[in-house]
Recover the amino acids of this structure.
DNA sequence: GATGAATGAGTGTTCATTCAT
DNA sequence: TATGAATGAACACTCATTCAT
């Protein structure tokens, strides 16, 4: 496998176990069965590894979102599909779910690193969708900016919550309950 | 002032600015205008300071909640009042809002420290109130455990979000929107 | 009891348990049931406490030795009595035995503190006695300086050794064996 | 040179000068002209350095002793040769002599570290040799355990004593006097 | 004299990062 | 690219000592 991806996977695993600050670069290298020095060929520094974990998942999200944009479906339905996609991803990636929840703060950990480019964060995308949804009277006249974020982190935190609370079996049922909650919360 | 409280205030301020791991105990001591050694008279170690910040606010919450319990009001109304109380607290304490949001993970940062006693966390209390609310058909038959947590961290994160997003002026309006969102989301 | 003596006893106990460097002045104060500050009324600093322990025992030895000097006995017999006295002292004071053995290095721990006055150390006294003994042909023509020290630390170390090796019951028998060893070693 | 050995030599030098507790790991690193961090690649902690100094010398002793065991010589003669070997070693290594004397307490400083394996300490070996010596009526019926230790620390302390007392020139003469003392002390 | 809260210099240890091989 | 020994700045924590009460 691509070494950068190998490092990302090991880092996700170790950071999920130990937390970012307690994770040693050496531990990541050990898990990936490579030398510490090698990590620094693919990453500028330790923070860069965490950024990459967030960016990778963000990129996957954006790709999925772009596919949805081409569909002829209502903005609210789009949001629901995006959340469903996120839940599926997190179910297949418990370590990642934990890292995104524990180490994430706002869109990206390091404000400095920001989004590299001018691409929007998921909360911003949700905001735009909510605004479109408002225009077609699908939902109430809510503060789209605030709810863009609220829906984003409710999704992120709940995906992790359901795992630690051992709801594995009822994962999808609980998830649909959450969707109903959100939709009821904002619909006209 | 009580030295332990003095340290708590300085720590909250510095941790809000720098983040817990980048905060040096020396910085806290400097801000409090005491010697480093003094910090260690009142706190076992650096983690203990963060725990105390969480515990202090938790204690205030619990005290407020216990006062509500004596009132003759519906469980859902109690939850709303608790959230309102939290928002007021966070408005008066932006640094604390940031620390609770950024450094908090689940109920308490350090799982080991647990709740000292057997006192319930706020999510647990919300859960119980939701169950009572379900019984009187005030709300739908939702997963009370999950929504106990969801309401808890929506409250926590949004209180912080509104501050960084500069909604100061519309703070209460935005907050009432959030309450409506939650109530609509779970009501029958 | 005299507070300085109280501190000396507690210090001896704690230092025997923990070793001098691992002993905290606070621990000594706790054991003596006084405040730390009080320790510093009677002692200049921590080292001073250890010095006092050594000096106290040294003073007792010197007093005993001076009594012997007045007796009409051979120098070799004097040495034997001094060693016997030391053994009895150590048997009654296991903690002190340990401290003298573990923390003692040469006559006094702190070279700077030296003997306060110009009083001789026990090795020096043994040296003089050995010289007298040589003159009366009681013992061989040995290096009195070296054997003054050798007999001194054999006495000190063996007194402690017999305790940790659990020879309590055979303590005096073992001790007499040691005396025989020394006398045989140096006699004509 | 092997870095671990380099550190051992610098540590021996500095500890001899300053004493173990006053020695800073940084001082050792400076003397060895390496970074502090490097010390911790080769040693678990500061105590571990002292243990290694003792172990290294102990290993040399054991190697010498094992060579003696193959010789057809009396047990008492073996002990004499071992002591002679020790004296030669200490003469060539005054710093080590000082460290072994000042920082040594019983066989090894840290009881926890024990002998790594089940190898015997030198006092134990002396004890066995004394027992063999007793069997062939070479020496009196002495307490072999006690005298194993007595001979061990008389050897160790005297080797150091002769150096600080400036007997360099008469070192071997004094040493032979000590051997005579010991042999006379225990022979039939 | 007695107290013990406060001090702050001092130090062991860690670990992200580098770079010669 | 890959390695991993070496680096050294950084930091949590300790504890002898002081001094206002």
């Amino acid at each position: 496998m691509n070494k950068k991806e190998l490092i990302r996977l090991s880092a996700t695993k170790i950071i999920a176990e130990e937390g970012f600050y307690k994770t040693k670069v050496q531990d990541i290298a050990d898990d990936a069965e490579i030398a510490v020095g090698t990590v620094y060929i693919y990453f500028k520094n330790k923070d860069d590894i965490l950024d990459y974990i967030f960016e990778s998942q963000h990129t996957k999200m954006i790709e999925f979102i772009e596919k949805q944009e081409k569909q002829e479906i209502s903005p609210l339905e789009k949001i629901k599909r995006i959340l469903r996609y996120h839940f599926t991803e997190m179910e297949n990636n418990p370590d990642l779910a934990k890292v995104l929840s524990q180490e994430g703060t706002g869109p990206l950990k390091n404000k400095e690193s920001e989004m590299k480019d001018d691409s929007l964060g998921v909360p911003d995308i949700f905001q735009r969708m909510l605004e479109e949804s408002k225009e077609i009277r699908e939902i109430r006249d809510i503060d789209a900016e605030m709810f863009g974020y609220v829906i984003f982190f409710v999704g992120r935190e709940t995906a992790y919550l359901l795992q630690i609370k051992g709801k594995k079996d009822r994962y999808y049922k609980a998830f649909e309950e959450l969707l109903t909650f959100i939709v009821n919360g904002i619909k006209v």
Notes: The interface with chain B takes residues 21, 101-102, 105-106, 142-143, 145-147, 149-150, 153-154, 157-158, 161-162, 164-165, 167, 170, 174, 177-178, 180-182, 184-187 of chain A (CB under 8 Å). The domain at 75-186 of chain A is CATH 1.10.357.10 (Tetracycline Repressor; domain 2). Residues 24-26, 36-37, 40, 45-46 of chain A lie near DNA strand E (CB under 10 Å from a C1'). The radius of gyration of chain A is 18 Å.
